[in-house]
Each structure stands twice: as structure tokens, then as C-alpha cells.
Amino acid sequence: MDCYTANWNPLGDSAFYRKYELYSMDWDLKEELRDCLVAAAPYGGPIALLRNPGRKEKPASARPVLEIYSASGVPLASLLWKSGPMVSLGWSAEEELLCVQEDGVVLVYGLHGDFRRHFSMGNEVLQNRVLDARIFHTEFGSGVAILTGAHRFTLSANVGDLKLRRMPEVPGLQSAPSCWTTMCQDRVAHILLAVGPDLYLLDHAACSAVTPPGLAPGVSSFLQMAVSFTYRHLALFTDTGYIWMGTASLKEKLCEFNCNIRAPPKQMVWCSRPRSKERAVVVAWERRLMVVGDASESIQFVLDEDSYLVPELDGVRIFSRSTHEFLHEVPVASEEIFKIASMAPGALLLEAQKEYEKESQKADEYLREIQELGQLPQAVQQCIEAAGHEHWPDMQKSLLRAASFGKCFLDRFPPDNFVRMCQDLRVLNAIRDYHIGIPLTYSQYKQLTIQVLLDRLVLRRLYPLAIQICEYLRLPEVQGVSRILAHWACYKVQQKDVSDEDVARAINQKLGDTPGVSYSDIAARAYGCGRTELSIKLLEYEPRSGEQVPLLLKMKRSKLALSKAIESGDTDLVFTVLLHLKNELNRGDFFMTLRNQPMALSLYRQFCKHQELETLKDLYNQDDNHQELGSFHVRASYAAEERIEGRVAALQTAADAFYKAKNEFAAKATEDQMRLLRLQRRLEDELGGRFLDLSVHDTVTTLILSGQNKRAEQLARDFRIPDKRLWWLKLTALADMEDWEELEKFSKSKKSPIGYLPFVEICMKQHNKYEAKKYASRVGPEQKVKALLLVGDVAQAADVAIEHRNEAEMSLVLSHCTGATDGATADKIQRARAQAQKK
């Protein structure tokens, strides 16, 4: 353990810092880092280098080269920079490379050098050019801050939702500030800049002068400033060699350190660990690295090569041409276990396990000592926690073996933490591999979450590893394997050296019916890559027609989209395609397409009946559907025409169509309607009143009510109304008029074809029993009883029923006998029944 702490460096009495190698860099850098624009993404992210930016000694024809490497130095992309002069590079939270040009245009590239998009920081930036730029991260996303040649700042807090903010002007600023940085306070991005001995804080509303509390006197300039990873703390390097450290709000001073070096540092970054009370700043010059904090002494390292610092959540990454290292505060659990002469429970348990492997009795002595103090659960937990913070697998295994050994002597120690740590370390060791090159620490991994890590593996096209991690951690398919396979398929369709058939088959064989995978999304990516035929083949595997059809329409495969919509049975989907086709094709081609799809034609006709009547007529004409065309003209004659001449003309067209359809009944009926309309117009002209749009029956009835009996009879003859119907119409009309005298004359005009029972019924309906009795005597024998009962003559009805010896009639009379008044009649019927039964 003494050897293990050889690289521990104390900072004061309460903290140790260690620096260990992550990778031996194998990249072939032909130039020093100082001659390149450098950007490294946090959380073990990639490194971008732009070689030769603005190098005057290079030939004018030599273009800069933008190269992207993994954190282990494995090349990911390389491209000649053919755009404008570059000012700054930076990585977004989604690991997209943001390249800020001198003209204020920001170009966005993917991890593999694929161009994504671009945006401008505004006309003012374009006019005044960019002097300096910063890429920063907030809880809302990744932002860009620009310092223009007019010494004004422009800022966007989220490049995903670009909203430019022109920051207030700094009074009296005639030259570029000596240093500046971005900060995020109260969910708002600010800019802190130094002008000589003064500090200014810019927000969206005002420019405020600020003063760090407790700053050493004699400061005439600030040479460097740094904000912590979480934007909670601020460090200022002054021209007097002092480093002031305090809160980012500039309300509280944490400490101040005199480094006795007045030369401006190349870089200054914070090095702190989550939930640690220790605060330290790492300062880098050409060949010296210094770690300073709340202590009188500092930690110093000699830099053999030009190096670059990358601030992280729990430390600082340091890379050069040959190595990539990590500097951080030693975690509490590791310090307690490994520091010299430690008697912490975790240290004793680790020793006990080692002695146990040697089959030494000292293992029992160490174990008893821990158990006597009741600290065995704490010891196990310390070993588990320390294992998570170790980079080397051998030390991880040693600590986990000690934890497993201690667990054996505990009755109810929950295994969850131990199992989870084993899983997490296996994942971390896999991604830390040189060929993968993502050197995440345990704290960074927990902050990043497994879902974001999987996204980053997908961005690097490390699909097999991502799937293995999902299966190992048993993540739900929709969140894990399915999502990764969908990304793999979207990448697969971009391989243009493979045929459409082979790509579609490979994707289907790999994906099958995997839940959560949308073939339509993959097909959309294929279409976006210009592979329309591949997109169509992939859509064949999409089970949801609602996802197939919109993309087919977008690809201008409307006829295929119509077939798919019809197969789905979704009428709304069919209507969507039909309306798209109508706008896309000329009228003739559209109708021909509909003729080949009967279901679509039927639905479109329904649509036209409510929305486009003229189109419906054209459809019938093209199909020579004379029957429907005739019906259309009949409806149109009433819906669209108000003048009688227009109606008659439309009906004549309808009649001609019916004749062509060989529907003589419909044709004759239409002609009769035309005759009726002309007659009704003549009646209105001669008699006044309203006759138009009445039926033949209603017209006859209206004439009778108007006293025009002869006209009514003539109309009945003209339209061949049967006598029975005419008598009913006249009977009803005269009764409604209560013209009883005319009704009696009418009944005697000739023998009634409908009998006289209807006369009785109509009179009783009008509550006229007197008139009803006149016609009851004229009713035939078979309906006599019913007529007598209608007028209330129960006794005579009984006599007629007895005379007819009809059981049904006698039962009908009995049902009308009520109370004592009809008692004699009921007895008479009963006696008649009895006599009939004797015979």
C-alpha cells in the first residue's frame, strides 16, 4: 500500500491529489499543440485539432486540416478546412463540434466529420468580425459567446434554439479585455470580463462593475480567469502572481495564493470533486503545472511536452503529444483505505483478505478487530466505494474481493450495492479500453447516466458494444437494444457501396419484429440519403400503414401510397392520399387512377357529394354512368336551380340520361315531374296560392280545399290517380273543411269504390257523430258491426252480430259493453252464444 500512494501529493493537511496515466497517445501529431486550435469535450469526450490556423509561415495554398480523435488518440475523422478563417472550436453537450469562423458563422460537424448544419451569430458580428469566442454549457444546452472587433459581446445560451442576445456595452472599452469568461447564475448566462484592474459583469439588461472581496492590493490587471465545472466558483489570476478563489457570485472569498509567477498562464481550470469541501485550481504554463488551493504550499509537476487541460466534473484531464493523464483529488474512501498506517475499517478488511489468500492467521486477527468495533458493514461499504474510484482493474478486483470476503461474515448485508458496482465497473472498463477511448470516471458515469453513454457509443458507431452493455444490464428493449438497432439501421442505409436489396435484407434479418423499432424512420433516413428504392423496400416491412403512407407521399409515390392506404382500411388515410393525388395529377390522370381503385372511387364520390358536385358530375360523365348522372341532375334541379325553367331543363337532362341508362321507369317519372311543375306554375298564375314543389296528392288536395273540384278531377285523370286514392283524398279534404253537405253529395255521386266505412271513420275523427250515422246505415254487412260500434250504437251492433251468428263480431261487441247500461245487451249475446253451442 505504501507503493500504491507513491503518486499521491498532499495539498495542505486534509487532501491528496494524484495524477495517473489514462492512455499512451498513439496519434501522429506533426506539430505542437500550441500551433493548433484545440477543443476537447468533457466526460471523456473526443479531441478536435485544427492544424495551421492562420500560420503566416505556411504557403497560402496550404489549407488547414481539421482532425478529430478519441480521448485515446484513435483517429475518428480528418478533413481539409475549406471554409473561412477559424477563431474557436468547441464541443456541444451532444458531442457536436462547433466551429466559429471570423465572419460569425458557426459550422456544426458530427463526431465523424459529417457536416450537420450552420448558423450565423448576426449581422453585427458579420460586420465587425470575431475577435474571440467561447463555447459553454448550461442546463439548457450548449451556448456560444462572441467578442466582436467593436469590443461588444453577442451571446446565445442554446444553439439548439438559437436566440441571439446583444450584451450591454462596457463603458470606455477601447481595446479587447485582458481576459473574459462565461458564467451561468440563476439560470441566466452572464459574461465576466477584465479591463485593467476592473471587472465587469454583463447580463441581458446592464453592465455592472464588480469587485472581488479580499483581493490583494496592487493589482493592475487580471491575466486569466476560470469558472468551475458547475459554475459555482471563480478563480482570478492577477499580474501580481496572486490567484484569488471565491464564489462565482463574487460575494465570498475562499482563499488566495501567491504563486510567485507573474507570467500569464496558458490555461487555468478548477479541479474539484463533487461533495468535497476542498477547492483547488490547476494552472499551466509552458513547462510547469501547479495545483493550488487553501494551503500555503502548492503541488507542482514538470511538463515535458506542450499540454492541454480539460476540466471535468471531478478532476482535470491533461493530454500532450505522448500521454493522456487524469489529475484529481483522492476520494475519501480511497484515502482512508490506502494512506500510510491507516486503521480505517476498509484498510483492515483489505489486509485481512490479503492475509486470507496467504492462508495466514493474521486474517482472523484483522477481522476480529473490525467486528469488535462493529465496523464490518462500514468496511465492506468503504471497499465497494473505493473500487469505483480506481482506474486499474487489478486494484478494483482486489477491493471487491475484500468487500466480498467481508460480506461473508455479515448476516443481512444487502447485496445490491456490491452487484451494481461490479456491473458499473465492468461497463466502465469496457469503454475505457484504448480502442473505445472514453475514460469516464465513476462519478462522471453516474452524472452522465447509462442512456447518455449508450447514445455516445451509438455516435461512435460502436453498436456491438452498446448492445452488449444493454444485454448485460438487462435494460428494457425499447430503451436499449431496439433503440441501438434502429440507429444501426439508419447508419446502414448510408453505405452506398451496398445494393438496396442487400441493405434491406440485412436490416430486416437483424431487426425482424423487434419492438420499438420503426421501419418508417429508417426508410425516411434512406430517402434523405437519396436512396428512394431502398426506402420503398424498407417500408414493405413497416406494419403500420399510417407510417408508410406519409413517407410514400413525400417520395412522390402517390399511387403506391393509395394502394397501401386502401389495404389498411383506414378511410381517413385514403382521403389524405386522394386529396394529395388530386393536387399532384392532372384531372384526367386522377380520374383514371380512381377507376383502377373501386374503393377509392367510392370514397371520393362520397366526398364529392358533400363538397364538389361538379367534380362528381365529371366522374359520372367519364364513366358513362348515365343512371347516377340522371340522379345527379334530379338532385341538382332542386338544390341549385330556383327558376322553374332551370329546373325543367335540369330534369329534361336527367330524363335523357335515364333513357340512355335504359331505365324507362325513372325517365317516365322524371317527365311526369316536369309536367307537374309546369301545371303547378300555371295553377299559381291562375289561382294564386302555393302549388310549386307539392306532390301530386298534395296538389289534388290543395285544389279540393280551394273548391276547384273539376280541376282536381282533371289532374287525377291526367296523372292516372286511381279512383280509390282520389276518393280518399277528396273524403279527407272535405272532412277537413267540414263541408258535410258537399261530402254527402260526393258520397251519392256514384257508388263508393272504398266503401262507406271510411266515411264513418273520418266523420268520427272530426267528432261529428250525426254525420257518421248517415253513412253507418250504408256500410256493407261485413263491416256493419264495426261501423255501428264507431257511432256508439252497441245494441244494434249486437243484433247484427247475433243475426250474422259471427263469434268474432259478438266478441267485439262484448268488448265494447260497459257498466249497467249495456248489461242487457251483454246478456243477449251470451244467450245467443249458448244457443249456438247447443246446436
Describe the structure.
There is one protein chain. The chain is of the alpha+beta class. Among the domains are: 1-19 and 212-330, Beta Barrel (Lipocalin); 31-193, YVTN repeat-like/Quinoprotein amine dehydrogenase (Methylamine Dehydrogenase, Chain H); 340-567, no CATH class. The protein has 33 helices and 29 strands. The strands form seven sheets. A five-stranded antiparallel sheet has the order 1-2-29-28-27, with no helix packed on it. Strands 3-4-5-6 form a four-stranded antiparallel sheet, with no helix packed on it. Strands 7-8-9-10 form a four-stranded antiparallel sheet, with no helix packed on it. Strand 3 (36-40) and strand 4 form a beta hairpin. Helix 5 (376-388) packs antiparallel against helix 6 and helix 15 packs antiparallel against helix 16 (558-568). The longest helix is centred in the last third of the chain and has 24 residues, at 664-687. The termini are far apart. It is a peripheral membrane protein. It comes from Lipotes vexillifer.
